[in-house]
Amino acid sequence: MLIQIISAQEAPQRTYLEVNCIKAKNDKVEEVAKKILKPYYETRIKDGNIASWDFYKVRFPNGKDCNCDFYSVKLIDKFENLNYTSEQRMAYFATAFEGKDLESLIQEARAALEIVETNIYENLDAAIKPGSVKPADYGFVNYFEIEAQHENDFREMMSKYGKPFFKGGIEAGNMEGWFFFRRWLPKGTDFGPNYVTVDAWGSFNNIDEFRNNEYELIKKVHPEVDLQAVGNQFDQIAKMTRRELIELVEWVR
After folding, report:
1. Which of 1, 132, 166, 237 can pair with 150 through a Cys bridge, CB separation 3.0 to 4.6 Å?
2. 21 and 71 Cβ atoms separated by less than 8 Å
3. Is domain 123-248 in CATH 2.40.50.100, yes or no?
4. What's the rounded Cα separation, in Å, for the pair 242 and 18?
5. What is the dihedral angle through the alpha carbons of 30, 36, 38, 43, rounded to the nearest 10 degrees?
């Protein structure tokens, strides 16, 4: 979903992700992303309306029963730009495709894909490989349901234990980044997972290397920590509901 944040600053300050969950209606989605969506979002970026855009394919799970086939992810660094009207959308579209048959392009996009859900996430924290510009090619997206009385403890655990661990993975050369988000809208646990982390990778080999050396890395980063006690505490306050593997398709900065 969310590796587009690879270009965000560590410990991002009040930036948001607008994430569109997309279901494919035919096999032209990636073609439409390149031909129609990318030029459209390039126009919005040039105007300062959004900071960046990424488009991801959900590799696992897949099939008709998966939640989303693709994600369209926009990084928004100005609060007022969350208020975005249909008139603005059409104005940017007309600018991006000046002289083109706009209705034909719109119909082509609608025939290929459907946005079935939109969520707004607030960036809470991040650890990023120095010098990163291009988003990572792969990411594990981890979804958590956290009850209100446990939110502060969950965020503290992510800061105290999670971030240093994944920074260690970046320093070891396996990872591209780690990102931590809170769902900002819609609000509450009635809407499903309310926290998300993303583990960003450059290749499948990087994932394999990390997994093979995970225990050694934990002991190196947290040598004095009672890992069993931390794990038990985490299980009491956090419910991980889903993990997805996503792959980068298109991106604009």
Report:
1. 237
2. yes
3. no
4. 19
5. -170
pLDDT score, position 3: 53
Q: What is the pLDDT of residues 125-172, one digit of tens each?
A: 999 999 888 999 999 999 999 999 999 999 999 999 999 999 999 999
Beta strands in 15-82, from DSSP E residues, in sequence order: 16-24, 52-60, 70-76
142-163 b/e (C-beta count within 10 Å ≥ 16 → b)? bbbbbeeeeeeebbebbeebbb
| Structural contact between residues 124 and 155, judged by C-beta atoms closer than 8 angstroms | yes
Of 205, 217, 213, give the one whose Cα is nearest residue 176.
205
DSSP bridge pairs for 178:
127, 199
CB atoms within 10 A of CB 82: 12
In eight-state DSSP terms, residue 237 is H
Nearest to 167 by CA among 127, 125, 227, 130: 127
CATH 3.30.70.100 fits 3-119, yes or no: yes
Cα-Cα end-to-end distance for the chain:
17
Query: CATH 3.30.70.100 spans which residues of the chain?
Result: 3-119, 123-248
DSSP string, 169-233: HHHTTSEEEEEEEEEEES-SGGGS--EEEEEEES-HHHHHHHHHTHHHHHHHHSTTS-HHHHHHH
* β partners of residue 46: none
Closest CA to 240 of 249, 231, 251, 227: 231
